[in-house]
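User: quick one
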Amino acid sequence: MKLELQDLSVLRGECPVVDAVSAQVSPGELIGLIGPNGAGKTSLMRAAMGLLAHRGHSSLARLDPMARARAAAWLPQAREIAWGLSVEELVGLGRLPHGRDQTGAGRAALNEALHRMGLEAMRARPATRLSGGEQARVLIARALAQESPLILADEPIAGLDPAAQIDTMEVFAAHAGAGGAVLCSLHDLGLAARHCTRIWVMDRGRLVADGPPDQVLSEQLLADVFHIRARFMTTPDGPVFQPLSTLHR
Amino acid sequence: MSYRALLIWLTLACAGLFLASLLIGPSGIGPIEGLRALITGQGAPGLVMRELRLPRALLGVGVGAALGLSGAAMQGFLRNPLAEPGLIGTTAGAALGAVLAIQTGLYAAFALALPLAALAGAALAVVLIVALAGREARALVLILAGIAVSALAGAATALVLNLAPSPYAAAEIVFWMMGSLADRSMTHVALAAPFLILGAVILLRAGPGLDALSLGEDAAASMGISLSRLRLQIVFGTALMVGAATAVAGAVGFVGLVVPHLLRKHVGASPSRLLPASALGGAVMLLAADIATRVIAPERDLKLGVLTAIVGAPFFLSMIRKLGRET
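Assistant: Done. Structure below.
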């Protein structure tokens, strides 16, 4: 399952918040979508899902809603959980596009998602009673239980503790490694550099860079887009990226 | 208690209260005699059983189920435990229609004028709501449109009362608005039943959509739920059920608010499982309240809506206190 975007634009009034973005996501890729606040990351992903009025073409937005739900899972930034549903039941909502089969494949997918996010011990607890970070993991598990090849996630690791952040990126990497693909926005450039196979950089609605982390995170791009100075090192422990200071605009 | 056990218990309670509703009344017919008369239909007891008590009990089930089910659907859709079926203006619209029928004297001309006028009022309210909020995806606009339509219908009802031709007509209107199941006939049942059944089918099918909506509108849409279709389902299903219920029983408050609240933790908070449970729970509560009006003050014609409000409001307050302590 491939995600193809062709000249995708989102207008807010006259002003384009996403400006003619063309790109594609292929199986096996974990793409980190980075950019400053207000660069259009969320709008790009929502338009790609067909949840936001747009111009141009997205291969997902053309599908009918049920087929799209089986092709791609969407993890919104706002972590909404209404009612005190149990963790197990909430994660099971991810099976809705599959007719909510509670036996066989559905059950297996549910258990696998709970296991991958380390939620087995709290499966019977009401999700509303969990901490913010735990709720975030529950919602990620819901997206995994959907078993769609594509996952689009909007800042899924914001507010998680370091271990949970690394775990989540590894879960996404495993999903990509198993033939799926993940497009995930994040602000932690260090984690993006370490875990993503490719990085998209957005700035003022435009996709300004698209490539492997070590090529994209250049001194010039960091200065132009993020107004920071940083250190990117290739170490025996893999790539290490550390922002150092801001530059005056 | 498992979900299945809960439904079985509620069904049994509903059946028991239905029977009790048939057997309790001012005419002093014994239980065995009453049941026999219901089957044979002979004599004065047969008339009482078939023409007074049976429709009253049937409407108790239908109206209660309508209020419980639409309350649960509305709370699930708005993700707010304080939502109630009257929120989209159909109750106020139906009340206005009924009040106009009383005011014009039309209801004295033929028996079904009042419920038909109430249904027309409810339909008009729905048309207004859909026109105001039909294309907007967010639930907030629906709430605001509902409040606006309710306010408009309420103001018009007040105007009608204000201009009532006689104190007698005004009293008639006020009493009707208090809600009651007394002196209804099988014609009322036949009039309400198609709307109630159609509304119930529409609302019960909204279960998966309401479940998905627990994760927010964006997540639900991404999971294959059409939000615009779900919204129309909720609006029309609620309007059909509440419009028909109000048309035959008047305005009965608090059932649609309290019943889903009461049952939520017993269904594991699932909005879809809450739907059938609240339908049964609503029927149980309304049958019990209607029996209570007959037992507490047999000679005073205590109104059903008054009783549900008097019992419901303090009960609701205690639930809010409990909610405050939990979080």
